[in-house]
TrEMBL record:
GO molecular function, one term: NADP binding
Annotated ranges, domain Glucose-6-phosphate dehydrogenase C-terminal: 207-498
UniProt-recorded name of the protein: Glucose-6-phosphate 1-dehydrogenase
NCBIfam families per record: zwf (TIGR00871)
Protein's organism: Lentilactobacillus senioris DSM 24302 = JCM 17472
Binding sites annotated in the UniProt record for NADP(+): R62, D101, V102, K165
Family to which this protein belongs: Belongs to the glucose-6-phosphate dehydrogenase family.
Any one annotated GO CC term: cytosol
Pathway entry: Carbohydrate degradation; pentose phosphate pathway; D-ribulose 5-phosphate from D-glucose 6-phosphate (oxidative stage): step 1/3
Length: 504
């Protein structure tokens, strides 16, 4: 009897994928996220048969367009996903539009009537997904109005609320938002998007850890020297200065994506591969993360802001960024857990804009053998290298394991070799496709629960507090580098170095 679980829920009749029946109400239906990511994701679910005849989408925004114009916008946004014009037209025919200002309570009765009408037309059986793809200041208002204006059904299998990022800008604002949402929806109805949790190799962390004795047996402070997480971007702030300058890399990338990755790497084995069990282990891990005091926060976190070079403007010269902005575009830090598994094994993290390339990776650095029997000076052998398990998240997907082996020359010399597996990315679903499918299935595994979000903010708030009272010396790194020198010094102080580095 195999010990792995087979998810039969994926398969419907005649080996087709199970059809997910639902009305999807999308707030912010004409926005950037909807047109660039959400419609292509829905289309791919349609192509595969997860969405078929029994679904309808009501898009909303203030702009006054009609159904035909909206369907044209949807068709255009999925055009590069298929050459089959008929398929695209059929898909787009499931989309309807209501001009709607989310702050105007009266409009919700129009939405309710439309939703009820489409429910009958497509036999949606009362299943509803409310996706808020708008600026975060609207999240609470929409959730409240959905509930008070009776858009949630009584007869359906589900009413689910999908919330985009950012979820607050500190613990207090996140708690306030959560209280607003919780007044209308239960925690198990709320799906907080963190698109990193929809990435193939982030989901693979659990398979690598819990599907392989050779890793899980060594996954602790006795065998792992340190873990490094790098989320590097070569792009700058682009058109998002208004949002980004109020956020900075700590809030934009560390509080959510990096803390989620850290929790997947640090958690204990869940009782079962189910959302409740996984979330409960992630929360436990985050709660044992040491929340720094002022001295520790200053010592263990480094911030940076990109300057200019011949071909790049500095951050402060970007459109919409104040010329004296002290917003960080780079963060590096050392995280410490106070628990039995990880005490003494640091997790180093870094993320930034205008770095040497676009790549996301996790490097797990194992301890060297206690005795290096090859290290006799007369043997001429080089010292043993670290064993490193690298999980490549982007742009390539796969992993490699660096081991020491004898080279094939005369004498006895060891050298590092990489055992490597790279995935074929052609058929990998994009994060939003996976995550929307999970919402339709009601699987909360790859979404952030409130206790996780709360713990992550409590950790990050401490760093922010310290930075807010200290004047940074910006700009302090050049575009195309791997951030400020201080990020390398952070590890050098511990007699370590980043596994991925470029020459300065
Ligand atoms: N864009 C991206 O790549 C990413 C975005 N996100 C998150 O997704 C969410 C949406 O972002 P994005 O699509 O970029 O934002 P946009 O500004 O592009 O879109 C906002 C949408 O909301 C509508 N809207 C604004 N005000 C109102 C109102 N009062 N009533 C009704 N509709 C309104 C706009 O249409 P109109 O003005 O006509 O009303 C538009 O459709 C945000 O939370 C963002 O942080 C997260 C990750 C990436
Ligand atoms: O959430 C965000 O993520 C993107 C990076 O996402 P990726 O999938 O391209 O790695 C980042 O550019 C953006 O600032 C941030 O808000």
């Amino acid at each position: 009897m195999p010990l792995y679980l087979v998810n039969n829920d994926e398969i419907g009749v005649n080996d087709l994928p199970k059809e997910r029946r639902a009305l999807i109400m999308l707030f912010g239906g004409t926005g950037d996220l909807a047109t660039r990511k959400l419609y292509p994701a829905l289309f791919n679910l349609y192509k595969k048969g997860n969405l078929r005849d029994h679904f309808a989408v009501i898009g909303t925004a203030r702009n006054k367009i009609n159904d035909a114009e909206f369907q044209e916008l949807v068709a255009k946004s999925v055009a590069k996903e298929s050459d089959d014009k008929k398929l695209i037209a059929n898909f787009a025919s499931h989309f309807y539009y209501e001009a709607h200002d989310v702050t105007d309570v009266k409009h919700y009765s129009v939405l309710r009537e439309k939703a009820d009408e489409l429910d009958k037309k497509y036999d949606l059986q009362g299943n509803r997904v409310f996706y808020i793809s708008m600026a975060p200041n609207f999240f609470g208002t929409v959730a409240k109005n959905l509930k008070t204006q009776n858009l949630l059904t009584e007869n359906g299998e589900f009413n689910r609320l999908v919330i985009e990022k950012p979820f607050g800008r500190d613990y207090e604002s996140a708690k306030q938002l959560n209280d607003e949402l919780s007044a209308s929806f239960d925690e198990n109805q709320i799906f907080r998007i963190d698109h990193y949790l929809g990435k193939e190799m982030i989901q693979n962390i659990e398979a690598i850890r819990f599907g392989n004795t050779i890793f899980e047996a060594l996954w602790n402070n006795r065998y792992i020297d340190n873990i490094q997480i790098t989320l590097a971007e070569d792009l700058g702030v682009e058109e998002r200065a208004g949002y980004y300058d109020n956020s900075g890399a700590l809030r934009d990338m560390v509080q959510n994506h990096i803390m989620q990755i850290v929790s997947l790497l640090a958690m204990e084995q869940p009782v079962a591969f189910k959302d409740v069990d996984i979330r409960s282990e992630k929360v436990k891990a985050l709660r044992s993360l040491r929340v720094y005091d002022v001295v520790e926060a200053s010592a263990n976190f480094v911030r940076g802001q990109y300057g200019s070079d011949n071909s790049n403007k500095s951050y402060r010269e970007e459109d919409g960024v104040p010329a004296d902005s002290n917003t960080e575009t780079f963060v590096a830090g050392k995280l410490l857990f106070d628990n039995y598994r990880w005490s003494g094994t640091p997790f180093y993290i870094r993320t930034g804009k205008k770095l040497a390339g676009k790549f996301t990776r996790v490097d797990v650095v194992f301890k060297k053998p206690l005795v290096d029997i090859f290290a006799f000076p007369q043997s001429g052998s080089t010292p043993l290298n670290d064993n490193v398990l690298t999980i490549f998240v982007e742009p390539n997907q796969g992993f490699s394991l660096r081991v020491n082996a004898k080279n094939n020359e005369q004498g006895f010399h060891t050298e590092p070799v990489d055992l490597e597996y790279m995935e074929d990315q052609k058929n990998t679903p994009q994060p939003y496709e996976r995550l929307i499918h999970d919402v339709l299935k009601g699987d909360g595994t790859n979404f952030s629960s409130w206790p996780e979000v709360a713990s992550a903010w409590k950790f990050v708030d401490q760093i922010r507090r310290v930075w807010d009272i200290q004047q940074p010396n910006f700009p302090n790194y050049i575009p195309g580098s791997m951030g400020p020198v201080a990020a390398d010094e952070l590890l050098a102080r511990d007699h370590r170095q980043w596994v991925y580095k470029i020459n300065r």
